[in-house]
## 1
Amino acid sequence: MISIKDLQVAVEGNLILKGVNLEVKPGEVHAIMGPNGSGKSTLANVLAGREEYEVTGGAVSFEGKDLLEMGPEDRAREGLFLAFQYPVEIPGVSNVNFMKTAVNEIREYRGLEKLDAMEFLSLVKEKMRLVEMDEKFLSRSVNEGFSGGEKKRNEIFQLAVLEPKLAIMDETDSGLDIDALRIVANGVNKLRSKERSFVVITHYQRLLNYIVPDFVHVLVNGKIVESGGKELALQLEEHGYDWIKNEQAAATL
Amino acid sequence: MSKHKKIETNDIKDWYLGRFSAFENHLNGSRDIPFHAVRKNALSTFSALGFPGRRDEEWKYTNIAPLLKHQFGLAGEVGNVTEETLRPYLFEGLENNRAVLLNGRYSEALSNYRTAARGVIVCSMKTALKQHAALVEPHLGRYARLEDEAFVALNTAFVNDGVFVYVPDDTVVEEPLHLLFLSDATAHSFFTSPRILLVAGKNSRMKIVETHNGLGDHAYFTNVVTEAVNGAGAKVDYVKLQDERPNAYHISHLQAHQERDSNFSFLNFDIGGRLVRNNLNLALKAENCEGHLIGFYIGGGRQHIDNHTAIDHAMPNCFSNELYKGILGGKASGVFNGKIFVRQDAQKTNAYQNNKALLLSDDATINSKPQLEIFADDVKCSHGATVGQLDDEALFYLQARGIPKAKAQAMLQYAFASDVFNYIPLESVREKIDQLVHERFDNI
Ligand SMILES: Nc1ncnc2c1ncn2[C@@H]1O[C@H](COP(=O)(O)OP(=O)(O)O)[C@@H](O)[C@H]1O
Ligand SMILES: [Mg+2]
């Protein structure tokens, strides 16, 4: 699905990712955990095509294609989706118009017929039920005045509508109360399939009780320092990131 | 240097003064009417004023030198304009509600406005001056002051045609009127001086859509003056769409006069033209009036679009609302000047002004100047002005959902402007302007 090799990324001249390696196969769910500032969002954003992030080394191939050569819209059309940590408010653009444009752009790219108004509406209503979102959000401006939890649900709603091959979720759990967390996780679990992969970025283990990953990676200071199964998340929960940092420090001594 | 400039400006002034005798010769019968004295007086006012220069405070940011380089003659007859020619400029549902002006002249053949309301007059200014003098003369030239504006004086001197709209007291006109101006510059250059006089009687209702389009690639100059008289309790919705050719100069002057309890709304969309200047003046002359000045402009290339607005609160308990938004790309420049006067008597005035500009390129510029002069103490006035760029974060968010950059930019531009479009009171007009603006987004 995606193969990240020795990816190095700088922001404003500072090296943030210092050689990240990650291989995700179809249907797999990978969790990336790590302390604040370790570079998790940087990784997510650089994969989505954000220009401020400068790739200074390494390679990323997505479904056999060179991801880093593509503009952000083509990455999305090829099937990559980023659920943003901080979804942007866009006053004046309605959610429904936004999603309709996006769906039809992606369909056109994939050689599919555009959806007409009726087809689109029934698709959208079905997906809203998945994340228990009220239909009134359709006519509202994208994320404008949404609560933190509503914004996150809107991200998962978009994920459901756009049906990507790979979904990267950047701290989708942050700012969610336990009920909202359950709704979001249920939505994601229903979207899991043999073909669709997920990279779940989170600071806390909590989300992984609901979305059970196949692999867990720990990102510290721009590098993946530990990889393992789902039990790694529990260890982190118990011992904190210091444990891994100390282990790291000991290893380099 | 400045001396040299002065002579040039005088030369072109003399050029226009020199057109007057040819103009008079074409007037035939309408030379003998009392209004001809008004024309002659306007000509001498124009002669005394001359064209404004950049030292003139009101023209500081609008350089009309490109306009003054042309020696525009009087517009000739237009050949070959048919129903088919007009089709692109029509609005759904308003196809049979039009008054058509070709090169500033009213076309009886192509105009087809009818209304079920009794006593309503929609006719050419030429006809009105002869047949409805008693209704026209108390108003024509009484509001738009020559002394203040050389272009008003120039228009008035050369007025022969235009449109007269008269709505009797207590008359509700259901059929919106489409004033369709078409300038045919395929064969040559010219200037036009159309005049619009709207007299809306007490408690009357009227909706007008005025459009300006052109044909051909020669330069031309539209110098239009509108006087809108709103009787007590009248409600008038006026939409103007300026979509002139890229080689066109468009200077317009609106003077609205409002009586007690009247509600006048003027929506102004500038999407064409090379050099555009709108002087938009509302005079709230009696208590309890409502005035709206809403506008949107979009410019690219080397377009220049200047909106000079003035709202004069003369009496108590009036409300005015002004919203102007513009999008400028390329090397385009814009000017917004918003004067609000609140006179000493105008207690309990509510006046709101907001203007926002979106600059899409480093070379695009906007000069905006709110100017509030308040002489009453119990008033609520607010104004806001912002200049910004497209939000990169929002752009990325849209792109990250598969929307190509150009389309994402267009969506954000539209989002910026959308509240202005919501003011358009006629759906088919809103849809059409929407579509035209979207086409402009794609190639700004
Ligand atoms: N746009 C940016 N400009 C400057 N520094 C940035 C930017 N984005 C991230 N950084 C820096 O990169 C580091 C990693 O940030 P981030 O990827 O957001 O971490 P995480 O998501 O793991 O908390 C931090 O030190 C942060 O300050
Ligand atoms: Mg982060």
## 2
Amino acid sequence: MALVLSVLEQGFIYTILALGVYITYKILDFPDLTVDSSFPLGAAVCAVMIKAGINPYITLPVSFAAGGIAGLATGLIHVKFKVRDLLSGIITMTILYSINLHITGSQANMPIFSDDNIFTLSPFADKLGKYNKVAVIFIIMLICKILMDLYLKTKSGYLLRAVGDNDTVVTVLAKDKGIVKIIGLVIANALVALAGCVMCQDQRFFEISMGTGTIVIGLASVIIGTNVFGKLSFIKTTTSVIIGSVIYKACVAIAIWMGLAAIDMKLITGALFLVILVLSNFRKAGVDND
Amino acid sequence: MIKLAHIDKTYNPNTVNETKLFTDFNLEVKDNEFVSIIGSNGSGKTTLLNMICGSIPIDNGEILINGESINKLSEFRRYKRIGRVYQNPAMGTCANMTILENMSLADNKGKIFDLKWGTNKKRIKFYKEQLAQLNLGLEDKLGVKVGLLSGGQRQAMALLMSTMTPIDILILDEHTAALDPKTAEIIMALTDKIVREKNLTTIMVTHNLMYALEYGSRLIMMHEGNAIMDIEGDEKRSVVVDDILDIFNRISIERGN
Ligand SMILES: Nc1ncnc2c1ncn2[C@@H]1O[C@H](COP(=O)(O)OP(=O)(O)O)[C@@H](O)[C@H]1O
Ligand SMILES: [Mg+2]
């Protein structure tokens, strides 16, 4: 039971970041590596604010905004300086590593074990007991999902989808496609940093390298979700991303349960991603041959 | 009025692939003129349209609209007054968005893309009327993703979308070339209707000599970056396809093939 709960908790945190990766990877077709550093950025901002005694719920919008700024940086590097997408993300990612350490005052580790957080302060902490954590994370994740569904139906959301679909259309609509891409990167990294903020409070510490592999987690979740469940027309894509994230987390948990050590975590993360990619390529090839 | 003055354009300058396409090229298109452009492959037709729209830079010269230079205006800003349909039907629409979403996008050109609902329900009736005039049955498929439509259906939508909001200039680059003859007829007739109704200044590149003669008030033939024929009015009306073929043949002979 504890294992299921922890899979759901972490899976829903992955969903928040996977929704961000969904914007860059699926909608914008932009392989954005910024996320490996915007995830710990959200966590760093969170840990420092909690240590300063600020209400943990305030850390959520602040981390979100901080992530947005990271996305803005990558967007400006790509659009204004015409640096290739992958490299733009790598540049911001590298710079953020130092900035994250500046935020925490050079601390690579920052425990917040003894401090209150969004879970201890949750209104239903007593009533729900051990289900409290998963409930809080679920609500935050659900709000993100619903807001994103709504956003994609607005005029601005239409333009974001159009720019990934066919940016010529956006240009002919007399709109600057670069600005639309920047908006997408801002939202995506804001979500990723928010996920980092929640993760930090879930595990009750900040650690500078906690972001390594964020992009892989996000991509794996999105690819599982959209390839396996995206074909079902009654399921919204964002819903399939939720399912994909939980399945991915479950796979990692099973691998560890079967006896792999914690130090093999990233090994599993990467290897599992490879399996998913290979399987989804097979699926595609199968469809092509039909 | 669109004016191209003393335009030079060379692709890949100072390389083995250097293509000196335009040298001191001049062209004036008056308001409400409908210019058909024909010419062999590689004669510079698409390049001409791309230079006007700002899709590619020019080396020298000036492009003016209504007397104002647009040299410094970036491509997307030029489309405030320009509508454009490409040869490839996939270029003018978003495949992963529905017909309704595509129409809504086009309808919002010139306005702000803010956090209001992307589709205005009150406009659906208008979109249906617009689509109905195509006689392709698209008005009953508003929820269908455009990527599932045929090339002809997509091109028809691209034409509607590019002319839905007020524009002054319409740029068409072989927009019927990828279509079957029947759909091409429908699209061409619709083009003519829209151009007349909206009084658009139009430049249409076409591979179809019949269309070039039948439609438009002026006919230009391009060859190696020059307008080697430029006729309008009675003179254009008196030209027949054989006359044009003669010129094509003469050019081919001059080139030695
Ligand atoms: N982007 C480009 N780079 C290099 N050469 C080009 C490019 N676009 C067109 N050209 C060359 O310029 C010439 C004219 O091309 P284009 O304007 O497309 O002709 P048309 O539309 O009349 O067939 C051709 O020789 C073509 O190879
Ligand atoms: Mg061409």
